[in-house]
User: What shape does this take?
Amino acid sequence: MEFTKGHGAGNDFVILPDPDGALELTPGLVAALCDRRRGIGGDGVLRVVRAAKHPEGAALAGEAEWFMDYWNADGSYAEMCGNGARVFVRYLVAAGLADPAGETLPVATRAGVVRAVVQGETIAVEMRRPRMYDTASAALGGLTLAGTAVDVGNPHLVCSLPAGLDLAALDLTRAPDVDPTVFPAGVNVEFTTPAEPVDGTDGHVLMRVYERGSAETLACGTGACAVGAVVLRDAGQDTGTVTVDVPGGRLTVTVTDDSCWLAGPAVLVATGEIAPTALQP
Assistant: This one.
């Protein structure tokens, strides 16, 4: 089985080319591929399949040729992954499956069609505008932190840390406890703290994230979008640009009247072959 390894600001993925949807991808195989000791290692799997050849992408085949079949590291599905979409587009271009010269490049996902723009080392992807819809809290290591529930095609809980609480000191080795009645399908939980202003932007924060199905990751694209929307709201703005620094690098979020752009690096680091029978789930 062929694979490519890539990452967006440290958020890493195993990319499987499967244009005709012939691979028998299972939760166990996904988890084994993402195992960092016995497999390739990654926060998730991106299967590259033509939209017309995937049951969840067929309805979008008229809008996008390619469907991003994204799986979390534990073998569960996810509706959307912002960094994954940017890495997916990097792969399409590098493999000659898409032309970056056009104005935008559409990609079908479980959350609908997103559009990407390739600008050298940076890839920006346009997603739905984040929707803040509730308040909730996350319990972590004896702390209870208030947060805002945000829908970015997948669920998020953004918790701004109170003054005096060190972001780096948070223990994210286990999932934060959240209210299952608010998040019946689980949730990605982002923790943020203010940072020094960045010229040309409306806000700058540091972020750590615990992703459902993947544990703590070095970056989360949709999480950065959720954080950007909350930062702008707290500043009294509906639109604007926010710099979000994550452990894996820097992402830029621009919220417009009707969408949200996520920009940052997307890198392919290796290609190869792996024997599925050798993997230990």
Q: What stands out?
A: Residues 2-126+266-278 form a domain with the Diaminopimelate Epimerase; Chain A, domain 1 fold (CATH 3.10.310.10). The chain has two domains: 2-126+266-278, 131-257. The CA atoms of residues 106 and 115 lie 4 Å apart.
